[in-house]
Write a structure and sequence with these properties.
The structure holds two protein chains of two kinds. Chain A is α/β, with parallel strands linked by helices. Chain A is built from twelve helices and ten strands. Chain B is mainly alpha-helical. Chain B is built from twelve helices and two strands. In chain B, helix 1 (2-31) runs antiparallel to helix 9 (187-212), helix 2 packs across helix 9 (187-212) and helix 3 packs antiparallel against helix 4 (91-113). The longest helix of chain B has 30 residues, at 2-31. Chain B starts with a helix and ends in a 12-residue tail after the last helix. The chains are: A alpha/beta, B mainly alpha. The interface between A and B is medium-sized, with 29 and 20 residues.
Amino acid sequence: MSSPNGPALLQVRDLTVHHGQLRALSNISLEVAAGDVYAIIGANGAGKTTLMRTIAGLHSPTEGSVVFDGKDVSRLRPEKRAAAGIVMVPEGRRLFPSLTLEENLQVGATYARNRRKYAGGRGRVVPPAQKSPWTIERVYETFPFMRDRRGQKTAQMSGGEQQQVAIGRALVANPRVLLLDELSLGLAPVIVQRIYGTLPQILESGITVLLVEQDVTQARRVATRLQCLLEGHTTLEGTPEDFTSGQIEAAYFGVNKGVEA
Amino acid sequence: MAWVNAVIQGVLTGGLYALFACGLSLMFGVMRVVNLAHGDLATVAGYVGVGVIAAVHMPFLWSIPVVVVVMALLGYVLQRTLIQAAINRGELTTLIVTFGLSMVIENALLQFFTADSRGIGVNQSIITESFSIGSQIQVAWLDVIIFALAVVVLLGLQYYLSSTKYGRLIRAVADDREAAQLCGADYRHVFGIAAAIAFGTVALAGTAYGMSTTIDPTTGTQTILLFAFAAVVIGGLGSLWGTLIGGIVLGVAQQIGAQLNLSWELLAGYVIFLVVLIVRPQGLTSRRAQS
């Protein structure tokens, strides 16, 4: 499963997660290489968000492990994972409603990863942006609407604006892997396009992206690898070019499995 | 003139109640913990003050910062151990645990300090001196100082919460602790800091109370906790300045009640408390009634 981009930055090995009695994920594995845009697709209730939350540390797996940069982080608390470079933009954005836009970003930057630790050496190819980290200023340059509205409470902003603030809040933590959970949820298609339009800048800065997306077309457009989940199981894994639309559709809905695939 | 006097005394007492209430309000606002041991902790602070003065013969005003620091450290430790463990087991558990803590403290104080009541800094000039307004109104300097202290504490808290790194984190964690974790913040540590602040303010309040009257092991539950609760509810949960307004309303109501009939002092306070609860359950200052 090793990717042409080099050794995996983030690995999920045989992950099984339960919500109480319910088995939400069964033996999920994935390998995200540095520079990848890895997309998880699947219908509602497939376990996509559970997978993301488990990688971020908000759920404990019943079995299996999460390995980041060669280290098993399965037992690490979510705040430690964030500081190590796994930063998630959670589903529903989850901004701090009583804080202003700028304060939201400041909270995100409080425990920003110590970039010097990663800037050089250890024989690894360090993406250039590791040396030019994300700052609040740079977020304002990337999302120009924010500068004038930095003193506003985010509760008064539109869903798309809130989503961009949530991305900004994650970027200023200087992630190595950015987890984007359902970016497009509840947003107009034109807004979704605009938000995905900033993805190249994020990637250029050396950040690897793992995203969850219900919109398969969108996922295929941006992903370098994708995996489809259905009821907590992997139904398909590979590069977008490996599969036809029909195969993906079958994996997504779980119909005509034998016929199409 | 007697009525004017009642209002002045009531307003000044309100400062003391605000000192009691702001820590209770902070802990509820940030951790969603209703700390039923809050009043007893104020009493503990009073006894620590008595003990510090007696043990090291410290000038009594200097003992105050010592007591505040000791209580703040105790707050951090208790939050990180007992209260956090209760939070992990659900909101109801925090009520039971802090109730238990309250009983443990009260009985431990009875055991070690007996049921005798004590004052702090009795006979110090700062405590006994007063000035007159006109011919009939006597105002104690101590009451004025405590009121000013309450305002300074609230101003300081407001500045801390709005303009410092940890203040921002406290507000963020109060909003959404999981999102704060995703930003790299250990909410348990932030809770600890909030508890340290709350315990520091209650230490000030307990010391002030011990100076203006006397404390005994049951003062915490029988007086302080109830007044703090009433002030928080009247002012509005989660609002800092609301605790001052709530404290003042409570204080004035008590003084006016006492003016009508001495035995109505407490009654009048609780009547106002109930009226506010019925007419304006979100409190008088409900900036963020719902979020």
